[in-house]
């Protein structure tokens, strides 16, 4: 008996482009038509969503999976949870797989909370006796006791989500596959979910955790897979993998450019064009000196005027902790002048003062929103850069200083 | 496709050739059949004032309409040996299995597409979906069966031991619906034309079955009776009427109908299993 939970061997999944995009399904007429005019339609273009992915997961290990959107993470999880089958390669799974590909799968709005717990539990592969045993625990975890006999269509989205996660979290499979459940829900509930996942891991069960939330990945996993363009790019201890991931995949160093097709339709009329980091000489760089003042600029277009718009940045550490948030209309006077920002092409620029950051790597995220109205666009990992401390305070001692910031404070020393 | 070799290890690899039916997984997930069936029934009658009463009104209303139009206006007669006044119960005996078959097939053929969100998110044996769509009709059948029993008392049709055959005929109707449902539901994943075609198919199928008329209209020869029974509902309906009235015992036609169901069922099962691997990608 080995202690392997998952062994993947050259897994690959090929999709036909036609099947993915313009033609989700065919009609009989089209199919019959293409039978007779075979050469008119070129052979379907295909794409490898995942190729040649091999890895092993030990029992009780919590493995992170990170990668950009469309890199193949979801395909990998779908293969492992048997939703779809591989085109090539094979995998070996020891034990029951519980997947949280999307919480609330199979919830029916007309059914009550109680009914949905049983239905959803059965869909996820639980036995009825198992659900009955855990019923009270699930209801308590979801905090929906009073509404348990109300149809879930009358639930708030928060209640709905809590109930859905509660069922899935009590599944107790040997292998738990989690995909982005934490992207939703309030902070309090996210903490609870993370806690529950930690419990699962402590009980010796295997967890495969896919997330864009780097701080959650860092907190919960020790080792992480980085998937890039359908390939396994790296398997490394999590801090190293996160570092690798964050420093890769940008069109040019020190700059993130959004191509037209990368902009989600939901963000319109706000269209992000680029974020750049410039040193005092105006060069676009991915490494700055702490002792100098540098500039961050956000370039964007407004296709229509926006009322109350604020465009800003987050500065975060590699561990995902926010160091600060700043918006271009933070100054109340500027905000009043800019009450309505007309359509046009803009550059919002700010100065990152000298003697602010400590050495290390940092992440810039951007956000464009109207307070309490709408969030147009957000990318929490638009850009990463590193800080060099040559000339910063205290560098005469070659030791590592803790902390994200390294301000030059005014000291006085008096003999008293 | 994945197959369980023992309870612990699952192998995931590309499917080659024909796939076995994987009864083991089906058995492991047997409770899901129950829950999905129960959901279908529950949801169907939610927010309907009459609720499950519809399971009774639908066949009763059809019976009234058929009796007025076909019996009173057009002069269609029941089987020889059954008095003309018995036409309502003669018709109802056929409507009972027919409406079960019709409802089951309707739900089964669109079942995969309506459950697309499940197919693309979690694994379970896909067969469960058309299976529970068919099974959901059994509750309706049960309620309209009570109506049939009441009518038997009213018309003075004796309760004989022939009635014990009814479960077998019902099973044949269920398998027929499942067999065709397997084909149509899998085809519908790829070709949505199927769901537009089903209502017409069912209308034509009803007139090709002895629902409003007697199977005796096909009296040319045993050969033509056998050809007629290639429609499995012919055997089912004849069986129901025989169990009630004792006329026109189903012999050859029952065998032919059962044979057709078997062929459709086995081929449907294989087609379904073969297409199963692309459901999540195509739907």
Structure, explained:
Chain A: Residues 35-254 form the ABC transporter domain. The complex is a heterodimer of chains A (416) and B (283). Chain A has 416 residues and is an alpha/beta fold. Chain A is built from 10 helices and 20 strands. Chain A has helices spanning 17-20, 28-36, 73-80, 113-123, 128-142, 157-169, 187-202, 214-220, 238-246, 332-337, and strands at residues 4-16, 46-58, 62-66, 88-94, 97-100, 175-179, 206-210, 223-228, 231-237, 255-257, 270-278, 287-289, 294-302, 306-307, 309-317, 322-327, 340-341, 344-352, 360-370, 374-388. In chain A, the strands form 5 sheets. Chain A has a 6-stranded mixed β-sheet with strand order 5-6-7-3-8-9, with helices on both faces. In chain A, a hairpin with a 4-residue loop joins strand 15 (309-317) and strand 16. Chain A starts with a strand and ends in a 28-residue tail after the last strand. In chain B, helix 4 runs parallel beside helix 8. The A-B interface holds A 15, 19, 24-29, 31, 78-95, 97, 99, 101-102, 105-106, 108, 110-111, 115, 118-119, 122-125, 127-128, 151 and B 1-2, 8-15, 29, 31-32, 34-36, 38-39, 42-43, 46-47, 117-124, 189-193, 277, 280-283. Strand 4 (88-94) of chain A pairs antiparallel with strand 2 (9-12) of chain B, so a sheet runs across the interface.
